[in-house]
């Protein structure tokens, strides 16, 4: 026989609702893990007292009773699994799995039997229904009636609110059957009554959710939040997890209490209680118990007189009373050295903390995502700017969380963290060896060491390491990822070298006209590379054929109006999601029709591209011929200009005054029109007469001007 039995899709009945999860039976005991909350119920084999197999609404169920009176119900078994379970119970637990059927006569007159934490209403020897007394929130009595009120369950579609029992009077003297019935119920019921004095009180604590300042009164079995408007009583049994998270500014601390079921205010449900503390705020605390009681109850975890930071005192007291470990951030360090990442979720800015076994986001709305419920993560480009990116998480239940506006410097750190935790990354696809190695039945909060205690001991050392890492790592990443001003520095150096060259050449000549050509030559030189930049980067030809659309885009263009009419007022984002769902659900035959249309469009595109490429080649040949012709003309003009420059040089000794002003004329002032220069020479010779000397280069230049 196998040492373990495992069952998927088993439902545990908790306070009127059925929570699905996984059940494993082993030699050591029974383990059930809730898929929704990650909470683990572990029943040791030595604690089992009775096992009952019975037919229920969801097939067949298993009821387990322990020696201390607790009852556990699991439904969703098949009838064929009875023999396997019965043999397993005999072999490993030494228990007979008894078969008991419920009474379905429909009678409402019977006997009430109290057994442990269970109220059973029986007709004869068969039970009609059972009520776990932990579900009872209040018990009131009348003349011959007892009324039981129950905790409301938000997850259940229909909740049972109350049950009334008629208790007939008896002839026994001194015993009131109604009061006896009520006392049996109240002894096991989960009734919150603020009787007695509080163990300690914390005054005016800042609470982010629910918002306001509250006095927190610590009682032995529950927590009482007393505010100006609302009061909340939170049983310690509803506390799932405790988190102590440092703020990014290193001056504040978040203390987060995860609750299931949540506290309620009207239609609002608060699954998380978030307190904000300043690290500088200290307190001296005295417990309202004598030292013997403190030692007996808390076994050294608390003392009667304590002092220290306010957040340390609150977290220490809560840890001792709830008996759960406090989760703190792990080894993750962001770009700035902090243990969190600034981001936005649902249009509100907050902080995302990568933990050792999950992610938590504070504070509005708070979100806690365990690694074992994550299907994959995705790194997406930011929608508004390229300086940020989005981090998307999708759970196995299909819920998607998008944390946006994360600085791109955080990408490397976050990617390495996700990679180290072996989470599936959608961008990269599923790779071999990246399968998660989490124990499916391990508690999501359990760690082999208490990280909170280690953090308290080494807080100063960690702060120094964080500061060093942030100062070193930030400089390296900034240099490698983004180098602002490189081009500007190069341009500045180029201008500086030109300026120094022009100033050194201008030292020998103090004339103003000497400096002007130098500046003009420098400007022309600096503009050349800027003219070439747009030429090297070719733009898209508007006459080029458009790329063909895919089958999905063709279908979307044809179906967009129909989707809008079926869903009036739908946004663009929701329309895209809806279209994706419709396309995914479309049959293979319909998709093939759009694939054929896409193939036809691709052929037309290839044909148009061939025609376009032939035409563009002809245009490029014509352009090359025109460029060659233009260059040839420029060379001819340049050659004639050089000859004229030589003649002007020889005649400059005869007329030094004119030569000084005109010898520095740049090429732009030399006319490229040969006919105009010839005509000007002819006019000058006619005006001066035959006795005048031959025209100098200065006169020809002035004539051309």
UniProtKB/TrEMBL annotation:
Biased-composition ranges for Low complexity?
497-507, 647-663
Pfam families documented for this protein: HMG_box, PH1_SSRP1-like, POB3_N, Rttp106-like_middle, SSrecog, SSRP1_C
Q: Could you tell me which residue ranges the HMG box domain spans?
A: 545-613
SMART domains found in the cross-reference section: HMG, Rtt106
According to UniProt, the name of this protein is FACT complex subunit SSRP1
What family is reported? Belongs to the SSRP1 family.
* Compositional bias per record (Acidic residues), positions renumbered to this chain: 474-496
User: Where does this protein come from, organism-wise?
Assistant: Prunella himalayana
Q: Name one GO biological process term.
A: DNA repair
Instruction: Give positions of region: Disordered.
Output: 459-552, 609-705
Sorted keywords for this record are: Chromosome, DNA damage, DNA repair, DNA replication, DNA-binding, Nucleus, Transcription, Transcription regulation
Composition-biased stretches, type Basic residues, lie in 517-531, 624-633
């Amino acid at each position: 026989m196998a040492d373990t039995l495992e069952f998927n899709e088993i439902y545990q009945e908790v306070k009127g609702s059925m929570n699905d999860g996984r059940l494993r039976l082993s030699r050591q005991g029974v383990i059930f893990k809730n898929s929704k909350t990650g909470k683990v119920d572990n029943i040791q084999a030595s604690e089992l007292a009775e096992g009952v197999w019975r037919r229920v609404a969801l097939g067949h169920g298993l009821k387990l009773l322990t020696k201390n009176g607790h009852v556990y119900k699991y439904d969703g078994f098949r009838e064929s699994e009875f023999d396997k379970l019965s043999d397993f119970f005999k072999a490993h637990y030494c228990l007979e799995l008894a078969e008991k059927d419920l009474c379905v006569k429909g009678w409402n007159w019977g006997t009430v039997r109290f057994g442990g934490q269970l109220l059973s209403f029986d007709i004869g020897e068969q039970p009609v229904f059972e009520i776990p007394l932990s579900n009872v929130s209040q018990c009131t009595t009348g003349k011959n009636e007892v009324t039981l009120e129950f905790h409301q369950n938000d997850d259940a579609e229909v909740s049972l609110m109350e049950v009334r029992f008629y208790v007939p009077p008896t002839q026994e003297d001194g015993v009131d059957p109604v009061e006896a019935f009520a006392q049996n119920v109240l002894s096991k019921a989960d009734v919150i009554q603020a009787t007695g004095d509080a163990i300690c009180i914390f005054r005016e604590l800042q609470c982010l959710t629910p918002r306001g300042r509250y006095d927190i009164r610590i009682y032995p079995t529950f927590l009482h939040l007393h505010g100006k408007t609302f009061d909340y009583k939170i049983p310690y049994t509803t506390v799932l997890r405790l988190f102590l998270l440092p703020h990014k500014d290193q001056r504040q601390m978040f203390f987060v209490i995860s609750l299931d079921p949540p506290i309620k205010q009207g239609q609002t449900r608060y699954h998380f209680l978030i307190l904000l503390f300043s690290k500088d705020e200290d307190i001296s605390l005295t417990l309202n118990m004598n030292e013997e009681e403190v030692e007996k109850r808390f076994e050294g975890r608390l003392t009667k007189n304590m002092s220290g930071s306010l957040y340390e005192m609150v977290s220490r007291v809560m840890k001792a009373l709830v008996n759960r470990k406090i989760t703190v951030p792990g080894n993750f360090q962001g770009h700035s050295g902090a243990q969190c990442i600034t981001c936005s979720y649902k249009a509100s800015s907050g902080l995302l903390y990568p933990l050792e076994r999950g992610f938590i986001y504070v504070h509005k709305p708070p979100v806690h995502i365990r690694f074992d419920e994550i299907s994959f993560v995705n790194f997406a480009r930011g929608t508004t700017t390229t300086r940020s990116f989005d981090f998307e998480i999708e759970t196995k239940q299909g819920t998607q969380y998008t944390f946006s506006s994360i600085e791109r410097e955080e990408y490397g750190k976050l990617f390495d963290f996700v990679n180290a935790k072996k989470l599936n990354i959608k961008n990269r696809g599923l790779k071999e060896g990246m399968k998660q190695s989490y124990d499916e039945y391990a508690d999501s909060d359990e760690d082999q060491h208490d990280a909170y205690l280690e953090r308290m001991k080494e807080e100063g050392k960690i702060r120094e390491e964080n500061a060093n890492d942030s100062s070193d790592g930030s400089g390296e990443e900034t240099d490698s990822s983004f180098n602002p001003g490189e081009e500007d520095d190069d341009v500045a150096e180029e201008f500086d070298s030109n300026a120094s060259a022009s100033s050194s050449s201008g030292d020998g000549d103090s004339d103003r006209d000497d400096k002007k050509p130098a500046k003009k030559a420098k400007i022309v030189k600096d503009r050349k590379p800027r003219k070439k930049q747009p030429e090297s980067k070719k733009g898209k030809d508007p006459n080029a054929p458009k790329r063909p659309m895919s089958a999905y885009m063709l279908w979307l263009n044809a179906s967009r109006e129909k989707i809008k009419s079926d869903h009036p007022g739908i946004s663009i984002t929701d329309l895209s999601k809806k279209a994706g769902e419709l396309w995914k659900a479309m049959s293979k035959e319909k998709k093939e029709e759009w694939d054929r249309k896409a193939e036809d469009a691709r052929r037309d595109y290839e044909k148009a591209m061939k025609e376009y490429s032939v035409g563009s080649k002809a245009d490029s040949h014509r352009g090359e011929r025109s460029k060659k012709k233009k260059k040839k003309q420029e060379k001819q003009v340049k050659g004639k200009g050089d000859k004229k420059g030589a003649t002007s040089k020889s005649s400059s000794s005869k007329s030094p005054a004119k030569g000084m002003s005109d010898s520095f004329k740049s090429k732009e002032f030399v006319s490229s029109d040969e006919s105009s220069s010839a005509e000007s020479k002819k006019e000058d010779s006619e005006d001066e007469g035959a006795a005048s000397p031959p025209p100098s280069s200065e006169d020809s230049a002035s004539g051309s001007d």
